[in-house]
Predict the structure.
Amino acid sequence: MALTILKVKNAKPGRHCDGRGLCLVVKDSGARTWVLRMQQSGKRRDYGLGSATEVSLADARNAAAALRRQVREGCDPVAERRMARKVIPSFEAVARECYDSLKAGWKNRRQTSWISSFENHVFPIIGARAVNAVDSVAVVEVLTPIWLEVPDTARRILQRIGAVLDFAHIKGWLPDEVSLRSVRKGLPRQLEKAGHLAAMPYSEVPALVAKLAAAAPTTGRDALRFTIYNAVRSNETRFAVWTEFDLDKGVWTIPGERMKARETHIVPLSAPAVALLRGRWHARTSDTGLVFSNNGETPISDMTMTKLLRDDGIAGVTVHGFRSAFTDWAAEMTDFPKEVADKALAHKLPNKVEAAYRRTDFFEKRRKLMALWALYLDDTAIPLPAAA
């Protein structure tokens, strides 16, 4: 029989049913609580609706009807209440926790670019938002400024955001997994294929190097000049530390864990490259820290050198493309064999048999080649001698 206001007021200790699972539970202490009992996913559950001294019979019936409707629609009121009580961290906090838990399994130092890519491109836009408020629309907002500008970086960031959201789901901060498959539909098509990075014609590179040298020195400008002088990958410059260099001998030894081919690469440094390093040595903050860093600990962003090009109005050219410019110059302007240029670029031979027989690293030939490249960059009027 349904309850009445009078029955609620005079109810003795025990459970008093109103119908359809709504009950008034009266304890020996006199405390009175409304409870709704329902079946959900094959399990019987009791949902508290509040104290009878604060919630009237009519309000309890309305609350019970609302809960029944939620369950019929597939909601889990208990889970939603837990989520409402739970403090949801910001996207930045979750990303940093995710990074700390994953980085121990990464094999090389280049993966530190993982968090720096967030610091440069993601945190300024959505870092302060609660992680459960980050959806496909927010991700498109992050990627739109860089999707065509630095397509490889943008694609990596998309994957990394997905990893952070998966991590948040596992931690219980997101009730459901978030699919980012629709994100690409909200972004323009990337025409440039990965691996074919736009390069500046080698004939235009000396003018750029001269412009960089004439401008006020900055860590970014030094890093870009150094990268061009040595035809190395940007990450090899960004994460270079002082202990890798012997400036007296003009040698840079990059450990295998920092190289794409996973093999130690010894770079013969040209005179301008050594001079650039000596200038930075005098301003260093540590004898063992990062060379191209403002504090010796934090590497410059993967976008720092690219931004220098864009600020100079150089569109469509990538930092990696200077390696292609070097390759074209070596082929067209010198008599050095292709194998020497390939070794200077630390290219791994695709033929394993050929690689096994070719033990030389052409170090002395590479030293002459890099000296000629530096000479070309600094003064194109000087005639180039043939390979020795």
